[in-house]
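EI: anyone free to look at a 412-residue chain?
SC: sure, send it
EI:
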Amino acid sequence: MMKFDERIEKVVQVLWVDFQFEKAQEVKSLLEEVAAQGNPDAYFFLARIYAGNCFVDSGFGYETDDRKTEEYLNLSIENGSALGMFGARRFGGFKPRSGSFLHEPYHSSVEVWNEVCNLAASGEIFAKYLIANAYYYGDVGELTEMDFSRMTQKDIQAQFRKWTEAAIPIYEELISKNMIMGIGNYIDILTSGDWGIPKNEKRAAELEELAADMGNGFYMVKKGKKLVDTNPQAALEIFQKAADKHYMPAYAQIGAMYTFGGKMPRDIKKAKEYFELCYQSGSASVLCNNRLGEIYFYGGDGIQIDYDKAFRHLKAAHDEENDWGSDMLGTCYLKGLGTQVDYVKAKEELSRYPGEALSAVGLGEIYAYGLGVPVDIKKAMSYWDKFPQHEHVIANKKNFKRILFGWKRINQ
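SC: here you go
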């Protein structure tokens, strides 16, 4: 029965089962050696190495290179890898330069499907993983050339349910062999209720705990976040273990423990170091941008205020459609901190969370002084009165005097 080259099996075990980060360069060199000898499957796995964190754990430190990914996928197809013809379909946006995912010696997608099924039946764990995902995503329909045009909507839904049910025992088998790739898909099956499949929250919770215990960084961080409020020390230890396994988003969670509002004794310098480690890895960019923006906006613990950097980080998070730092970003626009004054943008950002102290102060100033809007001192006071002890509220109110019918600005 068809099997992978034993060197490829070693690569699969190191990269996608055991996560032996210390062997990253060794197995990459091994794959390159096998590919140079004309093995088409090696090209497929090289493509995964260069395709980024969705295809190989970021802890291995491989560079992401779209050009190399595309080239290796093409080589895997053109040299006759059923695995490449099968797996390349899940690389978003990839289009084979030959114009087809099929290549000799295969003449139909069904032949490719059958070959990968044969590899799975022979015990190849990565082939099992691809088969399970094909059932989960419904790719099996394309691969087996199913004609949906002749099926009713009800029949199609029933078919998707059968496929999803077929994925379950394969995911369970993978877990039993310590391969936790795909566990997120399996958890989704157990919790979504899609296609009418009964939910199993208990098993899903067990799988999340198992994944965390097996060293999956994502689920380790998820477990730690549940403990932040009740047992911050335990949470910190879990985050550190995830970081030790090179799961870079864990560094952001450690940073959050030490920054403003964190559960550990505040250490802004330490927090900044952790956020920068995560940021430089390209992980958790929104969280890191927001928190680094906050650190540069307020400064502290030896970190100097730097509004240019604060604005740059906050704006980057905003551009990813996250408004967590809108109070600080709005203040930057209002005061011209790190950017040009823009009262329209200031009002827009500050209005997102008007209950925040910084937002209320800024909105009060906009209406009190008529910054891009008609003067409305009564409205300004409604914002300032939410935070009467705030130093900027106290300073601003010195410019106004209460009179019989409201407020009047003085010192003009």
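EI: The radius of gyration is 28 Å.
SC: 👍
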